[in-house]
Amino acid sequence: MSFILITCDGRARRGELETVHGKIQTPVFMNVGTSAAIKGGVSTLDLKNLKCQVELSNTYHLHVRPGEDVIYKLGGIHKFFNWDRPVLTDSGGYQVFSLANLRNISEEGVTFASHFDGARIFMSPEVSMQIQSKLASTIAMAFDECPSSVADRSYIKNSCDRTLRWLIRCMDEMKRLNSLPETINNKQMLFGIGQGGIYEDLRIEHMQRITELDLDGYAIGGLAVGESNQVMYHIIDVIEPFMPKDKPRYLMGVGTPINILECVDRGVDFFDCVMPSRNARHGNVFTSAGQLNIMNEKFKYDSRPIDEECSCEVCSNYSRGYIRHLLKSGEILGMRLSVMHNLYFYNNLMEEIRAAIESGCFSEYKKEKSAVFSQRV
Amino acid sequence: MSFILITCDGRARRGELETVHGKIQTPVFMNVGTSAAIKGGVSTLDLKNLKCQVELSNTYHLHVRPGEDVIYKLGGIHKFFNWDRPVLTDSGGYQVFSLANLRNISEEGVTFASHFDGARIFMSPEVSMQIQSKLASTIAMAFDECPSSVADRSYIKNSCDRTLRWLIRCMDEMKRLNSLPETINNKQMLFGIGQGGIYEDLRIEHMQRITELDLDGYAIGGLAVGESNQVMYHIIDVIEPFMPKDKPRYLMGVGTPINILECVDRGVDFFDCVMPSRNARHGNVFTSAGQLNIMNEKFKYDSRPIDEECSCEVCSNYSRGYIRHLLKSGEILGMRLSVMHNLYFYNNLMEEIRAAIESGCFSEYKKEKSAVFSQRV
Q: Which residues are paired to A9 by β-bridges?
């Protein structure tokens, strides 16, 4: 299993990651189904029609409900939700530090209260790997600390050091788990996560140190948490030269269509974000002419699809007027159709980005699309 | 357009109703999508995979939101929700008398407050026909009064007389509307509704009087509103001989799978009920071995489909354990999958009923299935 860089266009990369669940064409946007389901009633059968390559689920949420033992006994997450393509599981780290209460961090790990029922939970590099091994995702993420974006420099530095020690423990534990006969996916991959806040030197140092370890991919964590786009782009510019060319690069939790264009342009391969599904549930949909809110009065009698240029199942079958009616009436189908369209929009955008890189015209494509995406219909 | 009685097995009837939107094979169960959408995120594309022949929407709900003018301007309900098979619209009468507040009934019609925003609405036979004509459904229902099931005999008698006078007004108005060039569906059918509470003589008299009028079908209204199954079956036994053999018969708002078997056995052709979708949203699903609640702890590790005998999209792809997890986690997809299964179960039951009547073994089929359907898994 390996990553092949097919071609580059500037810093934009067109790659292919081979996994035990098939090949991933990059740049790719992963579709977020936190609890092994896309919010809004979208099934894995729907996902196949939406050009989704990789589904992303969350270790913390699945640990809380239904518990990794349920998924393990039902044959792993692929059998659990009937999806034969790659799945990436987030390590739970981000949720432990953003959702859970009453945290107590030690060198060993983190003790915290579940946001669901307040139960005390202990999570550590080993525990996160054990859960992810039972889930049997294609790609596991390392368990890291996600310090507050307003934490001071010395806190961030210490946190980076600990995250590095935790990463080594993750690698050791994943190696052990992958060698066990009872493990469902013995070829589970592990991506490390670089941190460092908004401090250039800490970012570079951390990336240098984690890339000395032989991981299957490298993620940039702790961005898109409140800093400006310009700061985010700058941090990526700063650390990109220190990321290995022959490994996939994943910018966690990003972002808008324009963010994705800018970050592909800076050499990023993997993305994920709840934005397309969360926005859709409130009627905010993306189109080839810019964003629109389908609940707007002006779409009441509109017989056109959400996006006249779109060939998704929703745009091929339903009108703005109908979807507006559904959302205004509180019909769940309105959310589902909007989410489906937005996920298709993102997955199709990535397909276009890949084609643009292949044909060496990514910067023209980016310029043209950025102008459109900043508009409202 | 006409109704053909293909064969009978006892009083059970196997028929075919030709409509401007295709043929309906009877007995049939209509799938309820009150506001032009099945609750739980099920689309008309899904309905096609669920063996749904007829979708039922509600005039009162669509009048309140989005308003019949929106649907008319978008080309009628078929274009509105992208469905080319028959649609039956309920007249709004039942909802006016069950949902709306501050009713004032006169010979002319009913003034009431919308349950949605309290706005004053006037509905009459003419108004109901005008709304349904704008919706352009395949089959319109007559606007009737649905008196309380505890109303006394003299109230019911007066109400039946008024409902008959209203029916004649419905017919006149529908005839006028069908002749207008701006009408979307000039072949809209009209079914009359027989009332009479639990009074045998009033039921018979009302049915005799409405069947003197030349309608496209006849419905039995005002049942399944709290009386026992035995009373309901008895009333049907009493009025069935007075219903024309050559017209479709529709028992409104019924019912459980056992109710349907019993009423097919008493000569009913059309059914509708919110039960399969409402039950499903709370995890109550129907199977070939009886009902079960998928949220039960015992299904936590169950890798089997909801129903091992079922070939629906849900049972072909998802396990009890997964659907239980979704419902327990509040994931909308859990509702959607359960609703889809239950609708398929009902539509497939009707297909089996039709086959049993054709092969002359309906009473054996009914006996066998009734024993199973009363069980819990």
A: A12
Q: Is A161 a catalytic residue?
A: no
Alpha-carbon distance B179 to nearest alpha carbon in chain A (angstroms): 26
Q: What percent of chain B has pLDDT over 70?
A: 99
Q: What average pLDDT does this structure show over B180-185?
A: 98
pLDDT tens profile B205-227: 999 999 999 999 999 999 988 88
* Burial of A174 (C-beta count, 10 Å sphere; 0-12/13-18/19+): buried
Partnered with residue B104 across adjacent β-strands are B111
**Closest B-chain CA to A43:** B333
pLDDT in tens, A139-184: 999 999 988 767 899 999 999 999 999 999 999 999 999 999 999 9
Q: How many CB pairs (< 8 A) connect A and B?
A: 125
- Report which of A200, A201, A209, A191 is spatially closest to residue A252, judged by C-alpha positions: A191
Radius of gyration of chain A, Cα coordinates, nearest whole angstrom: 20
Instruction: Please tell me which of the candidates B39, B66, B321 has its beta carbon nearest to residue A74.
Output: B321
Q: Name the helix (H) or strand (E) containing B4.
A: strand B3-9
User: Could you confirm whether B272 is annotated as catalytic?
Assistant: yes
Match 């309920």 to its residue by tokens.
B90
pLDDT exceeds cutoff 90 at A300:
yes
CA distances from A141 to A109, A169, A217 (A): 16, 13, 9
> How many beta carbons lie within 10 A of that of residue B152, not counting itself?
11
Amino acid at B192: G
The DSSP symbol for A241 reads G
Predicted complex ipTM exceeds 0.90 = yes
Cβ pair A229, A262 in contact under 8 A: yes
Q: What is the pLDDT of residue A78?
A: 98
From B34, which residue of chain A is nearest by alpha-carbon distance? A331
Selecting among A46, A90, A216, A307, the annotated active-site residue is A90
pLDDT at A227: 87
Residues A325 and B65 sit within 8 Å (Cβ to Cβ): yes
In chain B, what are the domains? 3-273 (3.20.20.105), 282-373 (no CATH)
Q: Which of B46, B216, B269, B272 is catalytic?
A: B272
Q: Is the pLDDT of residue A1 over 80?
A: no
Asked if residue B115 has pLDDT above 90, the reply is no
Choose from B295, B304, B315, B329 for mutation: most chain A CBs within 10 A.
B329
Q: Which residues of A touch B43 (CB under 8 A)?
A: 317-318, 333, 336-337
Measured between CB atoms, which of A43, A328, A332 is closest to B40? A332
**Residues 6 or more apart whose Cβ sits within 8 Å of residue A186:** A178, A179, A180
Q: Measured on CA atoms in the order B24, B25, B30, B31, is the torsion positive or negative?
A: negative
Mean pLDDT of chain A: 96
Instruction: Determine the pLDDT at residue B169.
Output: 98
Please give the full DSSP string across B226-276, using - where no structure is assigned.
Answer: SS-HHHHHHHHHHHGGGS-TTS-EEETT---HHHHHHHHTTT--EEE-SHH
**Shortest Cα–Cα distance, B70 to chain A (Å):** 6
Name the token pair of A345: 């929009």
The beta strand positions in chain A, using DSSP E, are: 3-9, 12-19, 22-26, 28-32, 55-58, 87-90, 101-105, 110-113, 120-123, 139-141, 189-194, 217-220, 249-251, 270-272, 284-287, 290-293
Structure tokens, A79: 């059998």
Q: Across residues A283-311, what is the average pLDDT?
A: 97
Nearest residue of A to residue B80, measured between CA atoms: A322
Q: What is the pLDDT of residue A98?
A: 82
pLDDT of residue A327: 98
User: CA B329: distance to chain centroid?
Assistant: 31
